[in-house]
Amino acid sequence: MIPHNWQRTKIVCTLGPATDPPGVIEQLIECGMDVARVNASHGGHADHARRIERVRNAANMLGQPVAILIDLPGPKFRIGDLPDNFYKLAEGEMITLIAEDSFVKEVGGNAEERSRLLPVRDPELLPALRAGESVFLADGSIELCVRITAAAGVHCEVIIGGTVRSGSGINVPESVLSEMVPTDDDRQHLAFAVAQEVEWVGVSFVQSAGDLARVRACLPSGAGERPLLMAKIEKRQALADLDAIVEASDGVMVARGDLGVETDLAEIPVVQKRIIAAANARGRPVITATQMLESMVEREHPTRAEATDVANAVLDGTDAVMLSAETAIGRFPVAAVRFLARVLAATEKGYSLRMAYDRMRATDIPSSPDNPDNALSFAACQLAARLGARAIVVPAHTMAAALAIARFRPQAPLVVVASSMRLYRSLALVRGVSPLLSIAASDTGTGTGTGPQACLIQAGEWLVAQGLAEPGDQVVLVSASSSACERADTLRTIRLSRDGGTG
């Protein structure tokens, strides 16, 4: 087991060619990767399965919980495969969008002809485009303007140039083209995700709570076999139904790439705060994604603005920050994670329970600490802060048990002793949580969990071994017992004994 450098905010890394060399996955975990993201829009299932297996093996070897998040492609238009995997488009030049099949058949090896054409994977997009419309590529970094539409293709002028890569997204904000979620491709990827026993599935281009309901209907009926659903907020329509979407989800992603194209870019900072606040209020884990350290795709050191962006996401209350191209295709994937961890650590030094408490109280929502259902969880956080407890320990059989406390953002580590491997890994995404796999679960593979006292002993030994506590330090134990007739929640403070147990 690697030394545990506890930080509240979690790190999500996208897998790709840059993470394939031997030893890179291990280094990412050692530097702080908590969640490995697989983008189903790129590559095949064989590649994805190989990368997932490598993450699982590395995480087991290093004794760290690492969750797997698979992003569904959703109803998004994309550039097809480019001969050299990328084109550089210059401002003012004319290019033609053409169906990918036609591109392959008609262009062949003619390099000069290829340079003026961009293949589109979804040919139904082309006849829907109209002269004067803006077309954005690569998360809005490239802008085209449609000049002429013809049967052979759509001729566009490059308004803002840049590098476009195979599989880059295409956004047409003025178009009403929209396929229902989930798509046929999404269903195939969902089946793959279930077979791989991944913990999280990112649902792209969610526009309503109904989208999540349709995706959930495609999953197995057994609750233990279901991956958790992460609603990616990247459409204008989603903002209109935000509260219902958050309520229907298991987690939320602020997907700033497409969101910055679908909405006014100037409004993204405020929209980000709104989405994070909505997720915090309902106790849903939230990821802030896209261009966190974009300059590190090509350069070894980030900009000051990027460091500030990461810090602001932490102060907004995000559970995790995500690296996309930085780790998937970037030149410095390990350095990017290492720097991200430094920013998180520096930012969290100024964190206070009062900040979280005020944010929760400021919003009139069911998860307010004044709600009786949340009283015990909020009290545990307050008690730990007042006593200077080294940790809050929670035996848990479900994600809800951990989130009930994590939603209040305690200052101390929240050590959740999980009763199953799936829960253990799933919790790696949640801010402030240090998951432990209960001894019963590790012995049996699935486990039914252990009693509060056994979990406390296990957590105490782990805290002392990791240097997060010393014998004599206090911890807060939150436990629940249930029977057919009653349920009793308990809250206790306990001192760790010299061997790391309780005394």
TrEMBL record:
It is an enzyme of class 2 (transferase). Residues 7-337 form the Pyruvate kinase barrel domain. Keywords: ATP-binding, Glycolysis, Kinase, Magnesium, Metal-binding, Nucleotide-binding, Pyruvate, Transferase. One of its GO terms (molecular function) is magnesium ion binding. InterPro entries: Pyr_Knase, Pyrv/PenolPyrv_kinase-like_dom, Pyrv_kinase-like_dom_sf, Pyrv_Knase-like_insert_dom_sf, Pyrv_Knase_brl, Pyrv_Knase_C, Pyrv_Knase_C_sf, Pyrv_Knase_insert_dom_sf. Residues 375-492 form the Pyruvate kinase C-terminal domain. The keyword Signal does not apply. It catalyses: pyruvate + ATP = phosphoenolpyruvate + ADP + H(+). Its EC number is 2.7.1.40. Pfam families: PK, PK_C. Belongs to the pyruvate kinase family. This is Pyruvate kinase. Pathway: Carbohydrate degradation; glycolysis; pyruvate from D-glyceraldehyde 3-phosphate: step 5/5. Gene3D superfamilies: Phosphoenolpyruvate-binding domains, PK beta-barrel domain-like, Pyruvate kinase, C-terminal domain. It comes from the Bacteria.
